[in-house]
Design a protein that fits this description.
The chain is an alpha/beta fold. The protein has helices spanning about 5-15, 20-30, 60-70, 115-130, 150-165, 180-195, 210-225, 235-240; strands spanning about 35-40, 50-55, 90-95, 100-105, 135-145, 170-175, 200-205. The chain is built from 8 helices and 7 strands, in the order ααββαββαβαβαβαα. The longest helix is centred in the middle third of the chain and has 17 residues, at about 115-130. The chain binds guanosine-5'-diphosphate and magnesium ion.
């Protein structure tokens, strides 16, 4: 029998010894599948399952974060032309083929090369989506802590504040935390906590896998507020996986 390298052994240990909650959350996230893309709100299918939206300035690390969380290389492919694909991409999640949540990946904002009229149009689409989407359960704002919250992030915070006050889940993910020292990380966390107005804040590094399990468990708990459901019954599987609202 060959002896595995210390690095391989460390990875195996992490997988095997990960808390059961993290394993459940990561297994669930891995089921993410592309559903559809909508250039405007009226093309978004009305859905009844909880939806979690991912927003952030372009280049904040949003695609990398979604790919890391779902353990898929190209689910939300890191766009080569940031800010150009102005559509909402939906992904379904759920074990045993039964969709129990949807992720909505909103295009990054703030990309300088986008014409002003397009920027304004897109901000309007995004604000309308965040305010009116009925099954929206939570919002994840990606922010590169080296730049902090920009004016556009703050506009977005204002737009969602009333919904957060009414109980909408909200998480600020401080991305690329591997680029911060420990004290910079602590400082970025406390500043973001003040700005998040009751929402959660986590440091996250796709490179160092920091915060991955924590964010995974939070998202899982948002989508499953009643905790672990009983295994899907045959009746539940017969239903259409994504039940449109009447
Ligand atoms: N060091 C480091 N770089 C990252 C991390 N996540 C993303 N990046 C880099 O940041 C840049 C923007 O990432 P991307 O996911 O495309 O951002 P998006 O425009 O928000 O989707 C890319 O060059 C990524 O490689 C991370 O955790 N650590
Ligand atoms: Mg991207």
């Amino acid at each position: 029998m060959t002896t595995s390298s210390p690095a391989v052994k460390a990875s195996v240990d992490t997988l095997v010894n990960a808390p059961v909650e993290a394993r459940i959350a990561n297994g669930w996230l891995h089921t993410a599948k592309f559903l559809t893309t909508a250039p405007q709100l009226q093309f978004l299918p009305p859905l009844s399952v909880p939806e979690i939206a991912f927003v952030g300035r372009s280049n904040a690390g949003k695609s990398t974060c979604i790919n890391t969380l779902t353990q898929q290389k190209r689910l939300a492919f890191a766009s080569k032309t940031p800010g150009r694909t102005q559509s909402i991409n939906l992904f379904t999640l759920g074990k045993q083929g039964v969709t129990d949540a949807v992720f909505a990946d909103l295009p990054g904002y703030g990309y300088a090369a986008v014409p002003k009229a397009d920027k304004l149009r897109w901000q309007q689409v995004m604000a309308n989506y965040l305010v009116t989407r009925e099954n929206l359960r939570g919002i994840v704002l990606m922010c590169d802590p080296r730049h902090g919250m920009t004016e556009l992030d703050e506009i977005l915070l204002e737009v969602i504040r009333p919904r957060v006050e009414q109980g909408m889940k909200f998480l600020v993910v401080l991305t690329k935390s591997d680029k911060l020292t420990r004290s910079e990380g602590t400082k970025a966390l406390s500043i973001a906590k003040l700005q998040a107005g009751g929402g959660e804040v986590r440091l996250f590094s796709a490179l160092k896998k920091q915060g991955v399990d924590e964010v995974a468990q939070l998202l899982w708990s948002w989508a499953h507020p009643d905790g672990l459901a009983t295994p899907a019954s045959p009746a539940a599987e017969e239903k259409s996986p994504v039940t449109p609202v009447e």
